[in-house]
Write a structure and sequence with these properties.
Blueprint: E1 13-15, E2 22-24, H1 43-49, E3 51-60, E4 69-78, E5 84-95, E6 101-109
Antiparallel strand pairs: 1-2, 3-6, 4-5
Amino acid sequence: MSAAPRPGTPGATRTCPHCKTTILESASVCPACRHHLRFDPDAAQSARMRSVPLRVEGTIRPPSGEAALEYSVVLTIRNAEGAEIDRQVVGVGALFPGEERSFTLAVEATEANGYRPARGRGRH
């Protein structure tokens, strides 16, 4: 695992004061609880610059007539070499016959302002 980025650099993080989730330092709205964190006069333009390069949706249901189905939602992030950077259990639960759950994974991306690559510097 690589060292955490310095404050003010792309990828630097902080804790949301509302929900305590680790978020990007540059975020003006928490992606978890959606609370506004600071006034952003360029919010409309920032929203236009946001992209979703990955979105996956799916639904699960237990086989009919069977017992309950337990599930764990596990998120794993790997770098280009395949090394695991982060792994988290996002949620757990159970489904009973006749129930279903839908899941959506979305990766939201925005351009890092003022970033200029340094020579010999690793990326996250």
